[in-house]
Amino acid sequence: MSETNETGDIQNEEGAAAPRMTTVERAELRLKQDEAIAARIQAGKSFDEAIDPSNKEFGPEANPEQVQMRVAKRAQMLKDGISPYPVVVEVTDTIPAVRAKYEGKLEPGQETEDVVAVAGRVLFLRNGGGLCFVQLASGDGATIQGMISKKEIGADSLKSFKQLVDLGDHLWLKGRVIASKTGELSVFASEWKIASKSLQPLPALHKELTEDIRTRKPYVGMIADENIRGMVRKRSRVVTSLRNTFAKDDFLEVETPMLQTVHGGAAARPFTTHMNAFDIDLYLRIAPELFLKRCLVGGIERVFEINRDFRNEGVDGTHAPEFTMLEAYQAYGNYDTIAAMTKKLIQNAALDAFGTLNVTLLDGTKYDFGGEWKEISMYESLSQSLGQEITPQTSVEELGAIADRLGVERDEVENHGKLIEHLWEHFYEADLGAETPTFVRDFPVETSPLVKAHRSKPGVVEKWDLYVRGFELATGYSELNDPVVQRERFVAQAKDALAGDVEAMDIDEDFLEALGVGMPPAGGMGMGIDRLLIALTGATIRETITFPLVKPLN
To answer: Looking at the Swiss-Prot or TrEMBL record, what is one Pfam family this protein matches (predicted)?
Structure first.
């Protein structure tokens, strides 16, 4: 008998580690096993005779017994001239529609002459003598009972049903709508057909899913867990709401390049790739900002994009390497007008997706997005916490000494702005926005190279970050549109990059040329769609992303 050692290698009976299989080798092995099972079925063997429960012939890398049994049933269907995956099944009614029409309107045992044809996934199966019960579920989780009777469909058809149908199969039923003796709304089948044969068994539906299944097999999670299905639908409603709000305010949605020659628009480490046709290195987009601003230059005065961004950084409860970002820009606006727009976007999303501004989170607590939202100043709030005045003129040496005294972690490449933000996060980030959304305003210039200088505060830029329950949800700017100042900021960023700052931006000459054509004054904002779902539901970022990136097991 073979087993797995501590390193994950397959061991034979003598204890020697067998070599790992390549992906192709493993796929070919399982294909040969499928062919062997089909050949035995074709030769008239029973299901039990066709399979190899201990995998003596094909070894531990082959399919387990449950999968083999389902492969055998598929082979039997093909032998009998029945397609396990028919092109068409004649569905005339959806399960939710049948429930809506008949729910609560039939007495126990009452039958109708109304014939429906429905299809769904088999989530429950009970085979009796002359009567079988099956529960079918539609994609939205609505269920209906099917009753398959020997008297109605005949002995041969009932026998075939018992032999071939498994949990997880997609099943088509045609029959009269009735209520069972216990009052359960049912389809009393006169015909049945497997619409799609499931070869992989479902997990136990009465048990909580493991984290491994949730992240690596989200399609299984959607079948088994209403919360996972619900998150997909909530996310769709939120995104639809955002688009509707923008449309009502005359914003145009555009698409910007995902492959870029210069990474910019945010302080982040990019992913790199290579384009063979041009023989050049490219960056996966970390933000669409610089291209959306080109739209402002071109005369599209209200523009937004819901896009996929990629940042080669850490992974935690609010960060993912691939995520969905919303960015929007409004000509002749500023960070105050875009803050009002952001508030409207979030409140409309809460109302459209949840029907209330006082949402219920996964842990059962409530969070209210209504009313007035708070505002604080970064420098003033930091001064208050330290008990001494901190200004844009406070030296790097003094800020560094304060950070060391407090045990605040510092970056390898430091400047005034980074130290200010590290110190501020030390006091505020974990609890900020716990009761109500909070705008943190007026940031240091060194960490905001794309933001316009404050109208009355030297060394400060007109930027806000919006915090909800201790994490940053969105950011907004009065956008920098002076090409000379923008070049100065890019040069400072490039010097930081040369000094070792992997998140610093590069100099984008094409963007500077576009600014030189003339960009109107503007307000801009960015908000993670995944983070918006976190804010509205209390989920982690992995739970909000339908297909999160996880490290492969092999």
So the answer is: tRNA-synt_2
* Nearest residue to 237 (alpha-carbon basis) of 554, 547, 532: 532
Evaluate whether residue 111 is within a structural domain: yes
Instruction: Report the run of H or E that residue 24 belongs to, with start and end.
Output: helix 23-42
488 in the same domain as 431? yes
pLDDT in tens, 203-215: 888 788 888 888 8
What residues pair up with 127 in beta bridges, in sequence order? 132
- Burial class (CB within 10 angstroms; exposed 0-12, middle 13-18, buried 19+) of 33: buried
With contact defined as beta carbons under 8 Å apart, do 362 and 544 qualify? Answer: no
Report how far residue 174's alpha carbon sits from residue 148's, in angstroms, rounded to the nearest whole number: 10
Residue 31 domain-assigned (yes or no): yes
Co-location of 405 and 268 in the same domain:
yes
Domain containing 276 equals 226-544
CA distances to 10, 21, 29, 31, 48 from 24, rounded to whole Å, are 17, 8, 9, 10, 28
Q: Which residue has the tokens 């809506």?
A: 100
Give the single-character DSSP code of 319: B
Instruction: Please state the pTM of the whole predicted model.
Output: 0.86
List Cα–Cα distances, 179 to 102, 103, 104, 172, 183, in angstroms: 9, 10, 10, 19, 5
- Judge if 49 and 145 occupy the same domain: no
Q: Is residue 2 part of a domain?
A: no
Cα 359–Cα 361–Cα 365 angle in degrees, nearest 5: 90
Structure confidence by residue, pLDDT tens digits, 107-144 = 999 999 999 999 999 999 999 889 999 999 999 899 99
> Do residues 297 and 406 both lie within one domain?
yes
Q: How many other C-beta atoms lie within 10 A of the C-beta of residue 156?
A: 9
Residue 88 counted as domain residue: no
How do strand 143-149 and strand 185-196 relate by DSSP bridges? parallel
Residues 380 and 451 in one domain: yes
Cα–Cα distance for residue pair 382/390, rounded to 1 Å: 7
- Return the half-sphere exposure (C-beta side, CA atoms, 13 A cut-off) of residue 319: 8
Give the C-alpha separation, 92 to 146, whole Å. Answer: 16
Give the count of beta carbons closer than 10 Å to the beta carbon of residue 117: 18
Calculate ∠ Cα 245-250-255, nearest 5°. Answer: 85
CA angle 449, 451, 456 (to 5 degrees): 120
Spatial CA neighbour of 191 closest among 94, 116, 124:
116
Tokens of 484: 């000379």
Q: Would you say 465 is a known binding-site residue?
A: yes
Residues 129 and 158 in one domain: yes
pLDDT digits (tens, 9 = 90+) for 236-255: 999 999 999 999 999 999 99
Contacts of 109 (CB under 8 A, 6+ apart): 179, 180, 181
316 has binding-site annotation: no
Identify any residues that bridge with 359 across adjacent strands, giving them in sequence order: 367
Element (H, E) at 360: strand 358-360
SS3 at position 95: helix
